[in-house]
Amino acid sequence: MSLNLGQGNAKNAAHGVGNMVTLTIGCGIVLFILFELFLQPLCTLFGATEATMPYALDYGRIIVMGAPFAMISAGFASVVRADGSPKVSMIGLVLGCVTNIILDPIFIFVFDWGVAGAALATILGQALNALFFIVYLFHCKTIQLKKAHLIPNAKIVKRIVALGTSSFATQIAVVFVMMVNNNLLVAYGAASKYGPDIPLATFGITMKVSQLILGITLGIATSVQPIYGYNYGSGQYDRVKATYKRSLLISCLIMVFALFVFQVFPEPIIGLFGQESDLYMEFAVKSFRIYLLACILIPCVSVTAIFFQAVGKPMLAAFLSLSRQVVLLIPAMVILGSILGIDGLLWAGPFSDTISGVMALLIVRMQWCKIFPKEVSANE
To answer: Does the N terminus or the C terminus of the chain have fewer Cβ atoms within 10 A?
Structure first.
């Protein structure tokens, strides 16, 4: 959408958005059906026990109904941002969250609906999000969406899939890495003084806290994507370059602050999640200080991958997205774990962050002249 708008081609932009609408709703319905058919095996795969299975099924049967709504919210919110209305996009997303927060205690405690009530509150919030964005979509400022734009076009669908590969790969890689990591933590933890449960629990805290900070940098990288696309499509390359450099600088500065907090104040952060034994705290502190040691380089990968995605280089974006999580992190965990035991799993984090961050900067440096015309690059 942004690339076509930058080129002054609102018609092609509308076709892209229309195809996205059809694909998003279609995929949401297909996933809903699959989840309903295979809900119990999926719950087992994600660790539900005999005791928790009834609750998982009660929650799951309702929450999967919201799959189409959740996908509409995620997909359409990006279009609203690209349409030049980031505040409206934020309002739409917050609207559903607030609805969920209000309805949760009412359904759970007042109506006594338990986990089913929590699921119902969630999908009602998602439905409200979806309705808000659907209404906006037919009142966009830059395009006029018509029924004809909703008909899938093979060329447009292929382009959408190509540009979305990086984001898809990132999400799948995170899930895959966590699955491998959890199994390794249990295996090597059992052979250490910490046992299998402490590493699994404390490393989960490390990941949750780090994801809060990484979410800020990812939000910066994602929010400037329409700026990249529009200005690159219109040939305003200086703006694209300045936006990339500023977003990378700001994201890295945020991570510098995060690194300071992680190294100096891990105990108070861990204490927010409860305190167990001395061994529990010992490994939790070690996890924060080692695994996140090179976190300042993580934005180099995420910011650069989204930059490549926005200027029409999906393969490079996908490669960078996979490099840290799959290409480097998993082999590092296996190799270092076999050498250093449970500590090796922690050192795999800064190893992969450093290599992938430096690699991302080298790749963008080599591709700079290819992405931008030579006569523009020569002036730098």
So the answer is: C
CB 16 within 8 A of CB 24: no
73 within 8 A of 11, measured Cβ to Cβ: no
- The 10s digit of each residue's pLDDT in 326-355 is 888 889 999 999 999 999 999 999 999 999
What are the backbone dihedrals phi and psi of residue 329, each rounded to the nearest 5 degrees, phi first? -70, -50
Which pairs from 182-186 meet CB under 8 Å and 24+ separation? 184/333, 184/334, 184/337, 184/345, 185/342, 185/345
Distance (Å, whole) CA 206 – CA 212: 10
| Count of C-beta atoms within a 10 Å radius of residue 283 | 25
Alpha-carbon distance 337 to 331, whole Å? 10
Q: Hey, what long-range contacts does 112-120 have (CB within 8 A, 24 or more apart)?
A: 114/55, 114/58, 115/55, 115/58, 115/59, 116/58, 116/59, 116/62, 118/59, 119/58, 119/59, 119/60, 119/61, 119/62, 119/63, 120/62
DSSP 19-42: HHHHHHHHHHHHHHHHHHHTHHHH
